[in-house]
Design a protein that fits this description.
This protein is of the alpha+beta class. The chain has helices at 104-112, 114-167, 183-188; strands at 12-15, 30-34, 44-47, 57-67, 70-76, 88-89, 93-101. Helix 1 (104-112) crosses helix 2 (114-167). The protein has two domains: 12-112, Umud Fragment, subunit A; 114-167. The chain crosses the membrane at residues 115-137.
């Protein structure tokens, strides 16, 4: 197991490096574990130090014993024929395996490599950013086109009003008849 991601609730994710728990936990998968107050026979636990030199182990508890107020567990990998030679003290347990995801560890390991990081993180993130930029550009084009249509419509209405005002320059009385002396307008028109 390797690769630790701590969460606020103590949940950790580890990558499975061996096949000792197959078929229930596949090599190359990940296990999600969480510390609990009580561990029971049948629980799959992860224990041991998590350093560059040492890798924790996930095995099933097959028995437990009490000694001077401390609990010790005997563990065994599901594939292994015999139990682990050394008992595990309660203080060595990192957590109980809640569930596992087959083959996801291969993806996480690949993502740690430069090529994997570029392929799995940088390229998808770039595509999302470009997609958002494209959406902003398209939305801006729509807004600009709408403003142009509104401006053209306003200018058209204004020009029609001016034309109508020019056309209606003939002075008329209340009853629509030209006042005396302006009959000439009717002859010019």
């Amino acid at each position: 197991l390797s690769s630790k991601f701590s969460e606020k609730q103590g949940i950790e994710i580890k990558i499975v490096k061996s096949g000792s728990m197959e078929p229930s936990i596949k090599t190359g998968g990940i296990v999600v574990m969480k510390p609990v107050r009580v561990y029971r026979v049948g629980d799959v636990i992860t224990f041991g130090k998590d350093t560059k030199a040492q890798i924790p182990t996930s095995h099933r508890i097959v028995s437990e014993r009490q000694d001077k107020g401390a609990t010790y567990y005997t563990t065994k990998g599901d594939t292994n024929e015999e139990a682990d030679p050394r008992e595990v003290a309660d203080s060595e347990i990192l957590g109980k395996v809640i569930f596992s995801v087959p083959y996801a560890g291969y993806v996480l390991d690949f993502a740690r490599q430069p090529a994997g990081f570029i392929l799995l993180v940088v390229i998808p993130a770039s595509l999302i950013v470009l997609s958002e930029i494209w959406s902003i550009i398209e939305e801006t084009k729509k807004i600009v086109a709408k403003k142009r249509r509104e401006k053209i419509s306003t200018e058209k209405t204004t020009n029609q009003s001016r034309f109508m005002q020019t056309y209606n320059l003939r002075p008329r009385g209340i009853d629509g008849v030209l006042p005396p002396g302006l009959e000439i307008w009717d002859r010019l028109g």
